[in-house]
Design brief:
This protein is mainly α. 62% of the residues lie in helices and 0% in strands. The chain has 10 helices and no strands. The longest helix is centred in the last third of the chain and has 27 residues. The chain starts with a helix and ends with a helix. Bound molecules: adenosine-5'-diphosphate and nickel (II) ion (NI). Adenosine-5'-diphosphate binds next to helix 7 and helix 9.
Length: 215
């Protein structure tokens, strides 16, 4: 299995090194490293977790025209092609399809331990200082404005309305980033999310105070 993991890693490293929206190789690497750290405390199948972390953004709905299960399918085909067995390929495919955030009021369903771990690692990378940097990189890339005083955040009831809505990057904090703290699955995930959450709140306080001083 180590050989398959190495092959996937070297392809992703090359293909995703210049990705500009915060889904670059370094995001994948951080999610993999954090997933393995959480695994060392919580258990779970190490191969499924490592492969799931490496492949979790392989065909994100945000960039593939909205296809929801394309990531899992793509991950599965690649794993089979590299010689992985069907049961691992299926577990990784299901993990990849399930971890993405679907909207504030959308239920994620039942998740395996491995999925919960990679989801926590992915969510930790969406909050705190790195999360803030990634949100503005993502926003700029999709021509979204930073902030508008008179637009209210929307807590989306459906995945369709979440992905199709036009928002501001500051509103994205209320629509997703500040909600993640209460959606963490593992004990260590909850602890780390707490600190990163506080940092985002401090950032927003400072942001509003500077915004007003500049008027
Ligand atoms: P998920 O699997 O939940 O979709 P990812 O790790 O693939 O999470 O990446 C989501 C990243 O994209 C996060 O850092 C998030 O803040 C950012 N993002 C998604 N939608 C927006 C948006 N409308 N504005 C700013 N950032 C966004
Ligand atoms: Ni991700």
């Amino acid at each position: 299995m180590k050989e398959i993991i190495n092959q996937i890693e070297s392809v992703l490293k090359e293909e995703w090194k210049n990705e500009p929206t915060g889904h670059d190789w370094e995001h994948i690497r951080r999610v993999r490293d954090m997933s393995m750290h959480i695994q060392s405390l919580e258990g779970g199948d190490r191969d499924v977790i490592e492969l799931g972390a490496l492949l979790h953004d392989i065909s994100d709905h945000k960039f593939n025209g909205g296809k929801l299960n394309a990531g899992g399918q793509k991950a599965k085909e690649w794993l089979i092609e590299l010689g992985a067995n069907m049961s691992i390929a299926n577990e990784v495919a299901s993990l990849v399809d399930k971890i993405s955030f679907k909207g504030a009021k959308v239920d994620a369903g039942v998740l395996s331990l491995e999925t919960k771990i990679v989801q926590d690692a992915d969510r930790l990378d969406a909050i705190g200082a790195i999360g803030i940097a990634r949100a503005f990189a993502f926003g700029g890339n999709r021509n979204q404005i930073i902030y508008a005083e008179n637009t209210e955040p929307v807590l989306h009831e459906s995945f369709e309305s979440y992905v199709n809505a036009k928002t501001t990057t500051i509103n994205h904090f209320y629509e997703k980033l500040l909600l993640l703290k209460n959606e963490m699955n593992t004990t260590i995930g909850i602890q780390l999310a707490e600190e990163r959450h506080q940092f985002m709140k401090d950032f927003l306080t400072r942001f509003y105070s500077e915004w007003k001083l500049n008027r």
